[in-house]
Design a protein that fits this description.
GO terms for molecular function: CoA-transferase activity. This protein folds into two domains: about 260 residues, Rossmann fold, CATH 3.40.50.10540; about 80 residues, formyl-coa transferase, domain 3 (2-Layer Sandwich), CATH 3.30.1540. The protein is about 35% helix and about 15% strand. Strands 3-2-1-4-5-6 form a six-stranded parallel sheet, with helices on both faces. The longest helix has 24 residues. The two termini are about 35 Å apart.
Length: about 400
């Protein structure tokens, strides 16, 4: 899909955030067609540029940085100096959106807080991403994904029960809270852009990692609020559906995701246990949840008798949801992943090319993923300054002073 045809074509985003939640939001907006200008510190840039190995072969770019910065333009500006602040304010004057994830109040000393910038550009949508929000007893604290996963409850739900070998709380294998916060922030920006069409006035979006983590506790939050009982870790099992978990097979593991009683009957036919659905303890999902500790070992004993691929083929033929537990090499070799183009290869100025994970959104059959790679540090500084009308003499002076 060409940039001109994308939903956010013509929208300009100033992304002064770093690490993951803010850049993830910015990448989503870039994929949707916005011109996202990533403002970074001279010399060092975004922290994640140094979070390696691994590094992209033939370049200085870390894999971590590459995951969240597709489609942007990189400009280096030292915002701690007045001249740098002035440049950013020039960019703000013509921007629609600003993304930042500094500590609460951290930008005020630079005159780059919302109250200062809205006088310069009343139409500006200013999105702040912090650990605990602008108003909280914890507002002064830094927020890191791992810490928020712990404080926000998801680690209490993830991992094996304490009494099992290897039991204990476990974090999710990617920065789950950061990514969700980036997605919520992008949604908020879209809503604010829509609202601005009528009001012609911008707003301040206040996103907190802790709020998002609590917000995505989903059914487990309601399990607690509805029953008053604190949910416990169940490993790979589901608190509300049985059987919906991982099982060992003769040569590995697989998952079974039985979502209703009819599927359970078909599942039992495949494993040659047709009488199980007739047992009152297992006839309905509610009964199976109550008697999971009896049912699960019965099922695992049967599933251990055959190999994973055999079971998967039989379950697919019977319409029973199931699947393998793929390592990432198998994920990217999967026919679905290939057919949907989820691995995106783009040209790269240093490495020749870079493989990325495409945006999963498709509109009218086309991926919305931006077609330019994550930028090298300061790659577009001259281009953007030219757009601001900065002369070559002025640019040279800014370089000599270490501002850009």
């Amino acid at each position: 899909m060409s940039t001109a045809a994308k939903p956010l074509a013509g929208i300009k985003v100033l992304d002064i955030s770093r690490v993951l939640a803010g850049p993830w939001c910015g990448q989503m907006l870039a994929d949707m067609g916005a011109d996202v200008i990533k403002v970074e510190r001279p010399v060092s840039g975004d922290d994640t540029r140094h979070w390696g190995p691994p590094w992209l072969s033939g370049s200085s770019e870390s894999a971590y940085y590459l995951c969240a910065n597709r489609g942007k333009r990189s400009v280096t500006v030292d915002m701690a100096k007045p001249e740098g602040q002035a440049l950013i304010k020039q960019l703000v004057a013509t921007s629609d959106v600003l993304l930042e994830n500094f500590k609460v109040g951290g930008l005020k000393k630079y005159g780059l807080d919302y109250e200062s910038l809205k006088t310069l550009n009343p139409r500006l949508i200013y999105c702040s991403i912090t650990g605990f929000g602008q108003e909280s007893p914890y507002a002064h604290r830094a927020g890191y994904d791992f810490m928020i996963q712990a404080m926000g409850g998801i680690m209490s739900l993830t991992g094996k029960p304490d009494h099992e070998p290897g039991g204990g709380p476990v974090k999710i294998g990617v920065a789950f809270t950061d990514i969700f916060t980036g997605l919520y922030a992008a949604n908020a920006v879209l809503a604010a852009l829509y609202q601005r069409r009528d009001s012609n006035v911008g707003c301040h979006i206040d996103m907190a990692l802790m709020d998002v983590q609590v917000g995505v506790l989903a059914n487990q939050a309601l399990n607690y609020l509805t029953s008053g009982q604190v949910p416990q870790r169940l490993g790979n099992a589901h608190p509300n559906i049985v059987p919906y978990q991982a099982f060992a097979t003769a040569d590995g593991h697989m998952i079974v995701a039985v979502g209703n009683d009819e599927q359970f009957k078909r599942f039992c036919q495949v494993i040659d246990q047709p009488t199980l659905p007739l047992d009152p303890r297992f006839a309905t999902n509610g009964a199976r949840v109550q008697h999971r500790t009896v049912l699960a070992p019965l099922l695992e004993a049967v599933l251990l008798t055959q190999k994973t691929d055999g079971w998967l083929a039989a379950f697919e033929a019977a319409g029973v949801p199931s699947g393998p537990i793929n390592t990432l090499d198998r994920v990217f070799d999967d026919p679905h992943v290939k057919a949907r183009g989820l691995k995106q290869t783009l040209p790269h100025s240093q490495a020749g090319h870079v493989d990325l994970v495409a945006n999963p959104i498709r509109i009218n059959g086309e991926s919305i993923s931006a077609q330019t790679p994550p930028p090298s540090l300061g790659e577009h500084t001259q281009q953007v300054l030219d757009e601001l009308g900065i002369t070559s003499e002025q640019r040279h002076a800014l370089q000599q002073a270490g501002i850009i």
